[in-house]
Amino acid sequence: MAAERRSVITLGGKGSSLSSSSVYKVASGVANVRIDSSAIERLSTKPLPLIKGSSFSIPEELTKEETRASLVVLLNKLLLANSGSVRSVLPVKIMEILNSKDETFEFGDVEVTEGESVVLEKSCATLVGICSVIDHKSTVLSQIVDSVAALSCEATKGDVTSFSLLDSGDGFGNKDAISVAGDLKVLLNGSKAVGKLEIEEISKIPRIHGKFRDVVRSVHSDARVELNSGVKGCGIGEAMGATLSALCVPIKSLGECSFLRAKLCFESAVNEDLRKLLSEKSCVEYQNLRSGVKLALVEEDHCRLAHKLNECLGIVWRIIGLEAAAAYFALAGGDLFATKEVLKGDKKKKAVLGKGTSVIIQFIKERLVSSNEAANGGDQVEQILDLYNPESHGFDCLLAKVKEIVESNENRRLPKLPKGTRDFAQGKMIIREKAFSIIQNVFKKHGATALDTPVFELRETLMGKYGEDSKLIYDLADQGGELCSLRYDLTVPFARYCAMNGITSIKRYQIAKVYRRDNPSHGRYREFYQCDFDIAGLSEPMGPDFEVVKILTELLDKLEIGDYVVKLNHRKLLDGMLEICGVPAEKFRTICSSIDKLDKQSFEQVKKEMVEEKGLSSEVADRIGSFVKEKGAPMELLNKLREEGSEFLGNKSSKEALDELSIMFEALERSKCSGRVVFDLSLARGLDYYTGVIFEAVCIGAEVGSIAAGGRYDNLIGMFGKEQVPAVGMSLGIERVFNILEKKQKLEERKSRVVQSTETQVLVSIMEDNKLGEAAELASQLWEAGINAEYLVNKRRGKHFDRAMSTGSEIPWMVIVGKTELSEGVVTLKKILKGSEEEVPGVPRDSFVAELLKRL
């Protein structure tokens, strides 16, 4: 009867191929072999010279499974051989052996043709057969092991946040480790059982499992090629031996990692006898694995290597099964051994498992119950081990279940944001909208008009404007038209706009997103808003420069970010300083880029870059170091630099800069904002287009880098048009400001000062079903009166109060309409804010809006 239920694998058909999975099915006895009729017809029917005997032999130490796999491969190789040199006798005999119930695999004294002899001697059928078994088992193991590891993550309450840190977003991450982490996150989605314990055995799961996947792919690739190739050339044994050798260490690492996780799970097992049983079995298997891998690593015979590796793979399967049992018993707890009465009285709340892991736990539980409800712990361990045995009947169902969980999310895999981007909702949007409103009001107060430009520009517009930072520009794929890039900032598009439209005088502001292909970090994003204010056109000397810095201090004061400082310098002063130090003119911009890193690196690091990478002498770099250390109050340092005998006064560029700064610093003092400004000679600003004053704002005590920056750029607009238009501007890095404001919000929340995520003033509560018309009429009256209102139609009274009193989005007033109010044509007004509750019943419907307006 068993034979009748076997599936059939057909060999030799036109265009057909043999897979490791098919070899395994025949090798494990769950499938029969059939030779396609077209293959039989292709075999020679003519009498051929025979050679007595054959050199083909199967090593005695091979298992029945490995022997059968070898014969399947040999049969396929014969069918792939030159049909004129192979008769049908030998293939048919091998097919009969494979399909018989007899466990002996003797050919007997078979005479073969010369062509058949070549196949028998050079096909490496035994090695390829065992390799196919290893390929199938290891491929399936790579699909199962992640689900077992996910159970252990919950059983040990391990911290899995590191799984999300593997993808750096720069394209250089370990793809297999990232893929494993993705599967684990799918399995653990929604889990409340994972904790905050930093466990090494948990943290390294993605890399250990990822490496196993990587090597298994190589084994699969080699097996697929050799299964479907004729007997051609030499070196098959050496090539496959090298691939199998590479699998030894990943197999050992996989088993060892599983063993260590299982040990951690044992500690959570409720039953002492069960804990001891699991521990003893795991230790024995682990020692067998270590010995087996050690022998495999020194084995020189390729077939014996494959045999030993297959044995090690079987041991790892048992270790994985023991880990699954340990994790299962740790998560299921005492439920497995308690009486129904005890379970009924136990009201203890259990941790919520992941959507995937909960399905696996339930699957195992159902299997155990259906096997034997009265089984003890030891029996249940054996049943779980059998379930995780790839040769068992229940394994295919388990594998299908795991695939269903993971692959069901393949097209809707837990979505995630690209690196360097963020979502904003509820309370965060309130903060953002308030900040944008403040910023717009300040900009408008200074007479600026709004401007919007495309999110992408022609690539040629952006290139060559940002110095070394040009590498951070996002290029768009060529769609067969113009080459475009996402905008890097708002200044270059503004300059392009002015030149394109012949504008020579304008005050403009723009609040929009920009994009940079940067390495994301705290406070550094790839997509972020900039808030720009620029003044273009001729004006009194240093007037626009002063006003832009004044606007910046106004913004930061009104946003209430805390203490900050505006560092300020002049590009001409920098050029003069570099000239005094002996830096060649052609290296000014690249050395400025190095100096600009002094806020993040020590001078020694910057000096190393200037000397080793940019070709300055050590003496010149040291002279630069003596200057860039100067910083202080604006007028105080300015006077020091203008003292008699100062090298700066003897340089045309730096003297011009000091004269301009003198005018600006006086204006800043008289506008009472110079106390926020620091004159800092190390400030360089790496962008190539700056020509005059440059500045940068930093929040003191907040580790987010600069929060605003800007400067004069007199030549940028002229790059796009015929006329040079002088300009100066500033850009507020609002995302970093938001980081600071969000931290402040969290501190306020801890003091019970909750930030409202909505501005709803009234909830229209219709406490009867199917009364949308009532809600529409009342809510519309409130909206027409300019009152922020929502409505809810639901018979359950509690739903209305839950909505109105929701944390972070409380609604102060309710307009209640129940059965009584409906019958009498009135409403009840109810204020629900804690400490100022109020109720006004029986308010006529034609006057309830006026009553609310009095009270709001």
Automatic annotation (TrEMBL):
Single GO molecular function: RNA binding
UniProt entry keywords in alphabetical sequence: Aminoacyl-tRNA synthetase, ATP-binding, Ligase, Nucleotide-binding, Protein biosynthesis
Range of residues in the leader sequence: none
EC numbers: 6.1.1.21
Domain Aminoacyl-transfer RNA synthetases class-II family profile: 396-741
Top-level EC class as recorded in UniProt: ligase
Family recorded in the similarity comment: Belongs to the class-II aminoacyl-tRNA synthetase family.
Protein name as it appears in the record: Histidine--tRNA ligase, cytoplasmic
Species the sequence originates in: Brassica oleracea
